[in-house]
Amino acid sequence: MSLRLADLTGGAMTEFQEKLRQQHEESMHRELEALLGTGGGAEVETSRKDFEGFKTLFHRFLQVKGPAVDWAKIHRPPDESIQPYEKIRSKGLPPDISASLNKLVVVKLNGGLGTSMGCKGPKSLISVRNENTFLDLTVQQIQHLNKTFDADVPLVLMNSFNTDEDTRKILQKYSQHRVQIHTFNQSRYPRINKESLLPIAKNMGVSGENAEAWYPPGHGDIYASFSNSGLLDRLLAEGKEFLFVSNIDNLGATVDLFILHHLMSQPAERRCEFVMEVTDKTRADVKGGTLIQYEDHLRLLEIAQVPKAHVDEFKSITKFKIFNTNNLWISLPAIKRLQEKNAMDLEIIVNPKTLEGGLNVLQLETAVGAAIKSFKNALGVNVPRSRFLPVKTSSDLLLVMSNLYSLDAGSLIMSPKREFPTTPHVKLGGCFTKVQEFLFRFEDIPDMLELDHLTVSGDVTFGKNVSLKGTVIIIANHGDRIDIPAGAMLENKIVSGNLRILDH
Description:
This protein has about 500 residues and is of the alpha/beta class. It contains 14 helices and 27 strands.
């Protein structure tokens, strides 16, 4: 008797389905125990803790009945639950902001690899500006804070089994910096066969035939992993009160003193336990999670939770005007309380994958922002777009390497010479996907201060001192190559395969 994914998504649970679910849960538990039997030493105890979390997630996955949300219950959040950043900034700063900084911990989500940009190892070790990596810039920012305000803000990296070893090796180079750095690992969960709903792993190894058998289960795992690692209790004992959590590839996610002061200045009974930074949605952000009011709680709605019939409505920038930057400020004592009560309610994101051999698997994941509904006095803050500067592609990399920004103590600052506060829309084709190819195609980075839109497709290279203004479209047809000569100035131009330059 076997149960398929399709059998789990029906309506009311029949007695037959309930027996099937129990059977699958028992089979999963047996498989997990067998896997633990192939490991050894301390790894087994760590994995046992991981598997407890996985069992809880798998149990909830088997209970799922249809969409995660009832669309009719979704409402726009009340105005007071999303504060404009200007209002928070207008309160100014107290003379003793260093006292607040001493209660802060910066956490960077560092579980991702650089494979999508053609790089091996952790994404945080890719050079993004003046030979500085994401990790270099983060350390520089926090060191600058600690020196400027004579504070002690530690940096915590949430690594995954994919990034931990390489990250630890590189941390030695920061030993002389004025930043205390801690690391902990997020869980390692087994990918499950979509048909049998059993792990595909043969043993606890992560190489060879098992290389694709495991996954880090999304950043929602931070609460359990942070708690299990012992760091939560250690930092509470040191008097720390708030985490500032963000993706390490978001170069706009620096410590904001005004938001920190807002959090610390609230009376204890009204203290906000969770702040999510949101920003205005553009057409480039239509898939980003948004804040909604749902059953009297502020809640994060991700595109994966939206019923298919409402996906276009979700993507609308008129109904859902903001999206989650994943810059989050979270109360440490509140995390402790919710973990102890097992009251952290995170929706499951079912992420289907097809492995290289064609096997269909499922990853059960959670998102860190989804916990917002479990915290007291949760708040959204609508921040400037400058606080959301992620580097996911080579197109993003071109922007942050250009003269649109200057570097100041690890922070990227938009050039005052740029007339518009928005960044240009850049779309580089497949020839630029890998960082190595990208760097080969630019002798140096063009002047982009007056650029609005750039599209490049095909085999294109750029010489030195090129200037791009307005809308520039460069398309090399298959078999053609376009070399933009040194010193060229392209303003509102289309450059096509035969190198004719046309007014746009």
